[in-house]
Amino acid sequence: SVGMEKAPRDDWLRRLEARVMQKVCTSIRPLTAESILTLPISELKRLTSLTVDEVAAVKRSVALSVQRVPPSTVLDIWTGRNEDLVTRRLSTGCSSIDQALDGGILSQGVTEIAGESGGGKTQLCLQLCLTLQLPESEGGLGGAAMYICTEDVFPHKRLDQLVSKFFAKHRQWFASESAVTDKIYIEHAASSADLGAVLDKLFAVLPDQQFRLLVIDSVAAIYRSEFSREQGIAKAQSLLQIGGKLHQLSHMYKMAVICVNQVTSVVDAGKSGDSLVPSLGLTWSNIVTVRLMVSKNQTDQVIHVSFSVAIVPE
Q1: Which of 82, 127, 45 lies closest to 301 in space, CA to CA?
Q2: Which of 16, 75, 143, 216 is most buried, by the most CB atoms less than 10 A from its CB?
Q3: How many CA atoms lie within 13 A of 123 on its CB side?
Q4: Per-residue model confidence as pLDDT tens digits over 128-141
Q5: Cα separation of 197 and 204, whole Å?
Q6: Exposure of 178 by Cβ count < 10 A (0-12 exposed, 13-18 middle, 19+ buried)?
């Protein structure tokens, strides 16, 4: 998929009949070659109300117009010769956590931070919004952050406390404390529809903005309140749609995505007492690239890497 965005839109639009072109232009968001090629035929058919043959013709026309990209070898990826295929790491600001994550948070993919209330999930997300702004040489990605709140209002006081310490340590990179906070954008979403609308807005503004981090705090809050147990299929479909948009945003714009999740208590027959597992079930687990479990005891904050596609077990 690398290089799809380089295809001029007019080249493939001219190949389509006027009726088909109108439906494509008014139904697909974002209207890019990559979105059309990566969406399943069934989904394109639903969005545009075109026939299967017409959707296949649209895909074929777009595919013929996409700029070809020279193939890359495994050695190219390993040595970083192809910049488009390099996945960078975002430092958490804590060397111990970075070491456990083999360098930090992936710049592409969906990282989940799950745990009980008060475990430090939001604190870690706020910290990432700060370290993100550092240059790559200092562990950052040199960009801005979008923070989507779904439960409570944005924790301004906690952020101000972190910014003061962060600025004192890294003042050589910033003109003032306000220069740090100015690169953190805040949105609120009370439902899955609101969340989808915010993500669609991101697709529209990202080509002109330097967003390198998206935080959703939290995903579980929306789905726990909006869907009942009997609406499992609708919930799974909504999660897949949101997950698809998150991965698309991340890979198109090389943006790290962090999703906060709550935990659910389950009875484990092999252990005494209940066990805590991330909410939202198997559908959401298959969307997540990296899962971090956060907990807190009397003296320490504990972060456990449940799984990661980027860390090879020793």
Answers
A1: 127
A2: 216
A3: 13
A4: 999 999 999 999 99
A5: 11
A6: exposed
